[in-house]
Amino acid sequence: MRHARTTATSLVLLVLATVTMTGCSGGPTSSTTVTRPRLERSLERTYANRYVALSKVTGHRGVTAKSLDAHAVCDKGGPTVDDAGPGGDWICQVAYTDPNVPNPDGSAKVEMNVHSNDCYTAAGSSKLVGPLNIVDTHGHQVVNPAFEFDGCFNPSGSGTPDGTLIIVNAVPLPGAPVAKPALTLPTGLVTPDGRGRVPLLLTCGDAPTSCSGTIDVTVQGEAASKVTYDVPSGGTKTLRAQLTRGQARDGGIITLTLHERTPPPAPAPT
Amino acid sequence: MEQALAVDVQHVVKQFGEVTAVADVSLQVAPGTVYGVLGPNGAGKTTLLRMMFGLIRPDAGTVRLFGRSWADDGPRMLDGVGGFIESPRFYPYLSGRKNLEGLARLDGGVDGDRIDDVLRTVDLADRQRDKVGGYSFGMRQRLGVAASLLRAPELLVLDEPSNGLDPAGIRDMRALIGRLAGEGLTVLLSSHDLHEVEETCDKVTIMRTGSVLYHGSIAELRERAPSSGHRFVTSDDDRAREVAATLPGLRIARSEEGDLLAYGRQDEIDAYVAALVAAGVHLRSLEPDRAPLETLFFLLTEGDAAPEVPA
Amino acid sequence: MNHTPTRRPGIAAVMSFETRKLLAQKRTPITLVVAAVIPIIIAIVMNGQARPPKDTLFGRFIHDSGWSMPLLLLGFAGQWLLPLLTSIVAGDIFASEDQHGSWKTILTRSTSRTQLFVGKTFVALGFALVAYVILATSTIVASVVLIGHQPLVGLNGQVIASHDAARLVIESWASVAAPLLGFTCLAIALSVLTRNVAVGIAAPVALGLVMQLVGALGGVELIRPLLLTTPLEAWHGLFADPAFSGPLVVGLVVSAVWCIVSITIAFVVFRRRDYLG
Ligand SMILES: Nc1ncnc2c1ncn2[C@@H]1O[C@H](COP(=O)(O)OP(=O)(O)OP(=O)(O)O)[C@@H](O)[C@H]1O
Ligand SMILES: [Mg+2]
After folding, report:
1. What is the pTM of this model?
2. Interface pTM (ipTM) of the complex?
3. Which residue, of A252, B91, C12, C200, is most buried by count of CB atoms within 10 Å of its CB?
């Protein structure tokens, strides 16, 4: 029919227009605008600003975006997934300084849902920022500004990684025996030296003679090196873990997995 | 300089897919004439008139109105030309007057008095504030004439202006056309009705399936008309048809009612009656059929080439 | 013969007649009234809602600042409300002549096809802008009156002072004018091509939704910036710290290209077409 024909024609024209425009764009082959560096640089600012707002609510004075000096490192979907593109499986670690709230983990875990329109919704760790509803200094119940928040980043902002490295201790596998290790591992922000080695300050706690064993070092889930240690009981030692050149340049989340050889401390005599 | 022809159509062709709606038609209308384009349904009248208005482009040939063509003059071609194609259409949600006011804007503005004038001319003054959606067919037809007259045309092109009108409406429409012609307007109208053309037009072009069958004055046409057509009712039409085939000059057709129609000079008709009797076909009834001109029109447009039984 | 030379009509004559036709059809004034009233209703309903609509940007701050509602609406309804707002007229202005069989009526006057096309296009663009300004004004005023003009939290978590927020909200609404007019052009093209009022009005809205859907998919990053719905979100950059305007510039160019391509196709078809109706 005549009508069907004109409609079909118009649709074809429309598709042609779209295809032509796609063809004209030609340009970038790197497809997605959602990249790790963009997300990290945006999250640092957003997290810091929301954290400052939280500090105001809880009455902690002197907390500013500057004093927090937040740094973020993100990973999408674990070691097997490329760290680019939208998705709900982005996990970031934000390291920052707040004397009011000590953080033995050295960084805060932030779960991110990143959309294809270069915006994201982030959920802070309630361990550090508290629950959704909190009580302010006047006793009013308010929504926690750092519990969940939105942000958008510049899709043409710099895509160059800034090399931030944050150490996170491996979470023991579920079901594994959870004996408190004798060795204390470092956490938080670290800076590699000129040769791509990061310092690991190891502290041996309550051990019969010394703490010894090996530490598997991975960056963004990729193996970097294995460090063998032997630290006398009650002492500390700084070892260096070698990273690949790429890892040192791009930064990432450093995971330390401890394999202790130290026999468990003898049960205290009664 | 000689005055330009009001209408000068040269070798115009228009095809719609496989159908040739207008095949190599030429016609000239001198200023001051009332010209008829006559033809049965599907003859190509409307298509020809659409090309005059620039609504469709001819595949070949040219149309000039007062020497102006679409190619050279664009919409200026229609300066001084008014009219409508098929039944005129308006915006049903506007009043008759508001429709005319809007169209007047598209003509570069016309003063209110002129709108009053044309509404009075077509006898719509008292309904001008009503929405066109509530108009009868005839009122819309009249509003169409009013909209055409608004342009103060020198040439009025009307496509079957009396189509769908009641007898009184037809009479009024013809009277109006006569009056306008009397004022010196050139009128080109299409019609499938010979009487209308005979009554109103000086000259005529007869068309069938896209081609011109006749050009000329009504007077000439009348001279060319055969004496008469006759309606035969016989006992055996098939046999009667066979008999007719033996007589040269006689032309046979079938009427809408299924009767046998014979066309020819009086002596040929007489010979046919005698031959029928000789062949043993009984004649039940015999009467003269149509007026001579109508017969000619019928012969021209539906005679030989046309199928005897409508499909 | 005393032939008075016909006065030449201009595009203004076409626009004036088209405007009168629009206003005489109930749909047009109703659309303008709805554009004024709907935001007020939405603002009242949203304000009364216990749970803020967190899944759209600025939705979580609905009770905290009057500046968030206009942005929420822009994010939530922009993708279909704006195309609908414009296509009600733009999708109809050509096809309704087919519907009424009135092309032959206006094409046999003294206006050229070009004048008719330009006049109708201007009226459709003009209506889009009027309806959109009414919608924007009503949205912003209703929400500030109902909720207030508190500072707003931006898209880097920063606090934006009320007067800055006011400016950014207005700029954001201004920024969607470009894709809105892009949709106007698209509706005009569909109206001309299909000669069907229903298609002219519904298809731009449907295409808007399809484009929004396609844009939300992963793996289509190459086409995403070329979609006409992407510029509807370009204002996000204004609320970042530091603000960025790259998407606004790209959006402006993309909207212009959509508009020019649509209008050119429509114009060529309109000029060449046989009018048989
Ligand atoms: N839009 C079209 N598409 C296809 N064929 C068409 C179209 N318009 C007209 N035709 C064909 O062209 C031929 C002439 O049609 P036209 O309307 O010009 O005849 P007409 O003389 O005006 O007939 P009527 O007395 O019925 O109005 C017809 O065979 C018709 O079927
Ligand atoms: Mg006809």
Report:
1. 0.86
2. 0.90
3. C200
